[in-house]
Fold this sequence. Notes:
With about 240 residues, the chain is α+β, with helices and mostly antiparallel strands. It has helices at about 1-15, 50-60, 70-80, 85-90, 95-105, 125-140, 145-155, 170-175, 220-230, and strands spanning about 20-25, 30-35, 45, 125, 180-190, 190-200, 205-215. It has a five-stranded antiparallel beta sheet with strand order 2-1-7-6-5, with helices on both faces. Strand 1 and strand 2 form a beta hairpin. Helix 2 (about 50-60) packs across helix 5 and helix 3 (about 70-80) runs parallel beside helix 7 (about 145-155). The longest helix is centred in the first third of the chain and has 14 residues, at about 1-15. It is globular.
Amino acid sequence: MRKRQVEVGTAVRKTVPGATVGVEVYDRDTATVLTSLGADHQFPSMSLVKLFIALDVLHQNNWELPGVPMQQRLTRMLSGSDDQIANALWSSNGGPAIVDRVVRLLGLTGTEPPEDPGEWGDTLVTPQDLVTTYNYLADNLPPPAHDLLYNALYHASRTAADGTDQYFGIPEGLPGTTWAIKQGWGSSGAKAELNTTGLVGADARYVVIVLASAPLSAYRQLPAALTNGTAQLAGLVSGP
């Protein structure tokens, strides 16, 4: 396990020296953490918080599917990482209270709402908590709610709503695998943040989390760095 940890961090820092990296890979079939690096370190979530927003909408509706317009909004928010939809749902559903509710629901230990209530991307998350989140999505939701969210992640578009190529990390680093992803990118203060997360492999066997933070000057280099780091995990999650 230690060798794999070092490879991921080293591969990221080869492109972006000084980057902080958090990793956790979980095998859902064996209930085993396959590799872990800085898994309790907090990173700004960027668009990963959209998972919380979507889970909260469904939970507030007692896990019943909302009407078709809301289903379509949740799908667009996740598949295309649509910030406008996230902004509207964040504002209408209580902002930081969304994070507090999801923390209680899932039993998260390292997730905190943003200090500035309007900056949802500054919600703090950890690799461990994101593994918990994906396991909850995969195992605890009624089938209609699960299928809505999983299909949105499975059909993540290459180009996000803001024009970003969101196929860094898992999609490009783990070719030949099946994946359902939520990505995150942006800046927090003087730091650039890039996150690749998702369910990977046949029957969503693995949860893969790779988070990276670096000086803002490295923003353009981070996608390649994160892809190179994620590629080191191929031996753990190989297969369809």
